[in-house]
Each structure stands twice: as structure tokens, then as C-alpha cells.
UniProtKB/TrEMBL annotation:
Span of domain Flagellar motor switch protein FliG N-terminal: 7-93
SUPFAM superfamilies recorded: FliG
InterPro entries, A to Z: FliG_a-hlx (IPR011002), FliG_N (IPR028263)
Pfam (any one): FliG_N
Species this protein is from: marine metagenome
Name under which the protein is recorded: Flagellar motor switch protein FliG N-terminal domain-containing protein
């Protein structure tokens, strides 16, 4: 079982690739050569079952916080753009990312996305958790 410390930068890129899926990854990794893109995709498939979900979540959080600290985001307040990346996720990706979170965190994130995505997410959650979120 791998931990965050066991992962190389390439492993982390592959995990982010896997989380985002092909369509979003194409835009994110557009600056790398096509052959390298396919190698990264294959590596992501290889790591899929070797890395626990909790570690994948840590990788995504680490990437997100590094992205926020990037120079181009310093002009904006973090509260303005904190959850913008959620808009680019499809319903399954959004559910995979948010479902393990506490209801308060889910509620905060859902407040930042459009109503259709919010309703799709809530329809997948059991009634008890829905009540806590709402």
C-alpha cells in the first residue's frame, strides 16, 4: 500500500490524470508530447488499484493548494476561486471527491456549484446524509 511520501512526481501526475479523466486531462497536460501523455495515462491505469483513495485525495489536495499559491492566482482572493475546479468535474468525479467528506464540507462545496450538479450529487447520497448536508 502506497503512501503520499512513496509517490514520485510522475506518480502524482498520473493520479491527477486518473481523477480528472481523459477529457479534462487533455487540457491540463496539453504541453507534454503526445507519447508522454499516453505513457502517463497507462501509468495512471497501473496505479489505480495500488494507491488508496485517501492517498489520492491527499495528492489532489496537495496539487490544488500548490495551484492556489501559483502566481496567477495571487491577484484573486482565494474565496473567489477556491471551488472553481469543481465546475470542471463531471457528476461521477464530483461524487467521488466529495462523498467521503463531512457534511459541512460537502455543503460548503455544493454551495459553490450550479444547481443541476448540486441536485445530481444529492440524488446519489442517502437520505440521512442529505439531511445533514442541507
Amino acid at each position: 500500500m502506497k503512501t503520499l511520501e512513496d509517490l514520485s512526481g510522475y506518480d502524482k501526475a498520473a493520479i491527477i490524470f486518473d481523477i480528472l479523466g481523459d477529457s479534462l486531462s487533455i487540457n491540463m497536460f496539453k504541453d507534454i508530447p503526445e507519447a508522454e501523455f499516453y505513457k502517463l495515462r497507462d501509468h495512471a491505469k497501473h496505479l489505480r488499484n495500488d494507491v488508496p483513495t485517501s492517498v489520492k485525495k491527499e495528492v489532489l489536495e496537495d496539487y490544488y493548494f500548490k495551484m492556489l499559491s501559483n502566481e496567477k492566482y495571487k491577484d484573486q482572493t482565494s474565496s473567489e476561486k477556491m471551488f472553481d475546479f469543481l465546475e470542471g468535474l463531471d457528476d461521477e468525479q464530483l461524487y467521488s471527491l466529495l462523498s467521503p467528506e463531512k457534511p459541512r464540507v460537502i455543503a460548503l462545496a455544493l454551495e459553490q456549484i450550479d444547481n443541476e450538479k448540486r441536485m445530481n450529487f444529492l440524488s446519489k447520497v442517502d437520505v440521512e446524509k442529505q439531511n445533514k448536508i442541507v
